């Protein structure tokens, strides 16, 4: 059977398909039904940034209208992003598909996390004292547990154990930028769909952390 006609569930096992960059990028989405009659709206980089800014503004507005969001310390970007996510889920392959230019995605994410790191200093670490070391220990143990649970779940579903690592500490501790950086490396090792799964897991972690972390921290 030709590689292009393989069932999506078997695509990763085929030696030619597994090594194909195009196939690796679409393996996890190949089983999703696509309606060819649905309109596709293409957005360039400037429009994507403008849409993102509007999402933050919408999140600020929602927090003013719904005090419970502010009381739970949920960031405005999470509020606006959830609205976008729900709308995209409803519209996708039913009424409208969005084709976004992601050329600025990697640059902006790396810039964001770099500026956060630049705000740290030895004086700040010294001021934190034992609490910084305690947090570092908790984060290290958490990263190990994320990998162990991810590998166990991957094996339980007969998937590549490395997918458990990608969706574990790489995505949940490292974030989207780390998932993008390491996803390509895992794909070169033959792990199909590593980048897609890593970014999806990272965004889930950010959303869940924004919703639960704000509530726990605020209480």
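Sequence proposed for the structure above (219 residues):
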């Amino acid at each position: 059977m030709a590689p292009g006609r393989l069932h999506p569930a078997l695509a990763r096992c085929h030696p030619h398909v597994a090594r194909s960059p195009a196939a690796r990028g679409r393996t996890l989405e190949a089983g999703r039904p696509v309606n060819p009659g649905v309109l596709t709206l293409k957005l360039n980089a400037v429009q994507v940034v403008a849409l993102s800014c509007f999402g933050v503004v919408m999140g600020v507005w929602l927090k003013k209208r719904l005090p419970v969001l502010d009381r739970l310390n949920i960031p405005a970007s999470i509020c606006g992003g959830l609205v976008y996510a729900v709308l995209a889920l409803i519209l996708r392959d039913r009424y409208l598909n969005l084709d976004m230019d992601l050329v600025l995605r990697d640059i902006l994410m790396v810039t964001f996390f770099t500026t956060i790191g630049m705000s740290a200093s030895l004086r700040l670490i010294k001021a934190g004292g034992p609490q910084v070391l305690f947090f570092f220990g908790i984060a290290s143990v958490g990263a190990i547990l994320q990998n162990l649970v991810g590998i166990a779940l991957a094996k339980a579903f007969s998937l590549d154990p490395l997918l458990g690592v990608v969706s574990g500490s790489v995505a949940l501790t490292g974030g989207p930028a780390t998932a993008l950086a390491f996803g390509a490396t895992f794909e070169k090792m033959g792990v199909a769909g590593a980048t897609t799964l890593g970014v999806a897991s990272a965004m889930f972690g950010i959303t869940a952390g924004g919703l639960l972390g704000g509530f726990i921290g605020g209480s």
